[in-house]
Automatic annotation (TrEMBL):
Entry-linked SUPFAM superfamilies: C2 domain (Calcium/lipid-binding domain, CaLB) (SSF49562)
Gene3D superfamilies given in the database record: C2 domain (2.60.40.150)
Organism: Ciona savignyi
GO biological process per UniProt: centriole elongation; cilium assembly; protein localization to centrosome
Transmembrane segments: none
Protein name: C2 domain-containing protein
GO cellular component: centriolar satellite; centriole
UniProt-listed InterPro entries: C2_domain_sf (IPR035892)
Renumbered residue ranges of the record's region Disordered: 158-192
């Protein structure tokens, strides 16, 4: 299950079930349509870039017992991870790597333990979409948290000057996509 926590009304995405596997390869692919500028809980505009700079993707890994299983336990949560989305703005390759999956430690409920890892890739569908999201953010006076990381990405508009304040309001509902694909889970060896 994947939830883009930076998009308030986005539905939870689920992969297909991979039966009889301790290291499933989901090959799951989907695109999110994201408004460049929106209004979240206020009348002032909020840019996609500002949501990504502070946002995260939340993933949960579940076990679905086989129909032959006599217990009525239902689906079992194996672990979860939260991945900061800021790299979608600072790297043209976006998010790309292995992320730890943690679960509550059965011996100490206040601690968590690594139970595996998941490989995930997520990026803007094109460099132009990333640049447009950054221009729209700049037009509503968004400043990146780290100027050194993002200043090279805040590009001038197509007319040769900087994007002007308010220019994103001409098409605030213009959507741009983030693509996400290839989830693969590798469990940790648990000794005991």
């Amino acid at each position: 299950m994947l939830k883009p926590a930076f998009l308030k009304n986005e539905t939870i995405r689920k992969t297909h079930c991979v039966p009889r596997s301790f290291a499933p390869d989901y090959h799951h692919h989907f695109e999110l349509s994201c408004p460049l500028v929106g209004y979240h809980d206020s009348e002032s505009p909020v840019s996609l870039a500002s949501l990504l700079a502070a946002g995260q993707l939340e993933l949960e890994i579940w076990h679905r017992p086989s129909p032959e299983d006599s217990s009525d336990a239902g689906d079992i949560l194996l672990g979860r991870t939260k991945i900061a989305t800021q790299d979608l703005l600072t790297r043209t390759t976006g998010l790309n790597g292995w992320y730890p999956i943690t679960s509550l430690d059965p011996l100490n409920r206040n601690a968590s333990v690594n139970v595996g890892a998941i490989e995930l890739s997520a990026a803007f569908t094109s460099r132009q979409d990333l640049e447009l999201a950054l221009r729209a953010a700049k037009s509503v006076s968004w400043q990146p948290p780290s100027i050194s990381d993002l200043s090279r990405l805040l590009v001038p508009d197509s007319l040769g000057g900087s994007a002007t304040p308010g220019s994103a309001h001409h098409h605030p509902q213009c959507d741009h996509s983030l693509r996400h694909h290839h989830q693969r889970l590798v469990p940790e060896t648990i000794s005991g």
